[in-house]
Amino acid sequence: MRFGKLVCFLLVMGNMWGKFVIDEPGAQNQAPVSRPVFGGGARGVSLDMLGSVNTFDALGRAVFGGKIFLYENGGFGLRFQVGIFDVVDIGISEGIENLIGVGNPQFFIPGAYVKLQIIKNLSGFSWAVGFDTFGYGRRTLFKRENGTEDMLYGFYSVAGWKFQGWGSQDYLLFGVRFPLLPAEMRALEALSLMGGISIHLGPYFFVSGTLEHLYFSEKYQNRFLPSLIAGFVPSENFELQVLFQYLTEEKAFHRSLSLGYKARF
Q: How many angstroms separate the Cα of 38 from the Cα of each of 6, 29, 45, 98, 110?
């Protein structure tokens, strides 16, 4: 019920905000640019995520997208999202631990996904807030004393700038996360920081670095997760990201894979 009220509230706010969203001066007077469904390169294509870190860009009105995440220990993540207004996305996400390999799969209750873009390209600066999972894998699970586990879900706020890179637009962003679920993590000491930067190497390829789970409390410092990302975006519709996430206690990189697709309807 609380999620339903949250989604309904953001839908109403998004419809109103779409008329008043802070945008770059003169943007309303610019003629729309017609782009092919399958472009010859990814010049100017927006990314809604760098690895498992949300960016400030929304999908846009009448655009749907899906992502598949493959991560350590046979994990499988799935997300579906829809842009219902220019500045509002809604969707659902799910993670399954140990889906591939030996042992029994571990399923979790699917969570809501919401993004509201508040500032859109104001002299290059943008800001968005939303609700989402805090990523996939062991670092994003809450383990209770009785052995049961849950995925972390909560609110986030992310802001930053786009700048022109070598072949396409790149991101410099920073943000904060506050967990809402499970209830045991709903405390100020569970507030964490995140950030990321991307650099394109031509119109198709980019590299990125992200930092996640930067907690102020020593209680959660073992969750710190730096990542290196190699991305390939051959068109507006497809994206591939390979994540090399460094686990400090193991002193080793874990490899993850993200596959994304989006299109208009």
A: 35, 26, 12, 35, 31
